[in-house]
Amino acid sequence: MLRDIDLDVAAGESIAIVGPSGSGKTTLLGLLAGLDQPSHGEVSLLGTDLASLDEDQRAAFRAHNIGFVFQTFQLIPTLTARENVLVPLELAGALPSQERAARAADLLHRVGLGDRLDHYPAQLSGGEQQRVALARAFANQPALLFADEPTGNLDSETGGLVIELLMRLNTEAGTTLVLVTHDLDLAGRAGRRIRLAGGRIAGN
What we know:
Shape: globular
Number of domains: 1
Distance between the termini: 20 Å
Helix content: 25-40%
CATH superfamily: P-loop containing nucleotide triphosphate hydrolases
Strand order of the largest sheet: 4-5-6-1-7-8
Number of helices: 7
Oligomer: single chain
CATH architecture: 3-Layer(aba) Sandwich
Strand content: 15-25%
């Protein structure tokens, strides 16, 4: 349970949320991203009070403004790398199909997977799957990106590559980045660190 959380995140900022297991990190991320609703208090993203939106409106808001990267990748196993990246573009429906396909391919090239466009998740290593997830998260050029333990299932070398990609894509796109992590290297790369303990902000 979270208590007395008062947190402002500036546009373009990168923040790492750290703390022991059970301290409320993932709960805070879910609230900030509008996946969960607080029992008390207010969550405002891009000037929008999430409590003022119904479930469908929140889903539409996330589709147009928010990207996600999860520890477990969350790729659709029956879709290729290219098709997985296309999913948020097709849901948003903002671009013609040829432009969507071109953007998906470009993003996969940028994360070093230009030769894996038509591979399925089962044909990719863990690091490659996480890079597909990164490309998918940036597909709609989100204003905010939330990442929950994005290097947690990766070895140190692959995790380092994913950290570099996260920070580079964040800088290039100007996306606000909020990370939950136990990875000290990743936390150290963020512009600010927030430490949780017992459901409260306990320092930096």
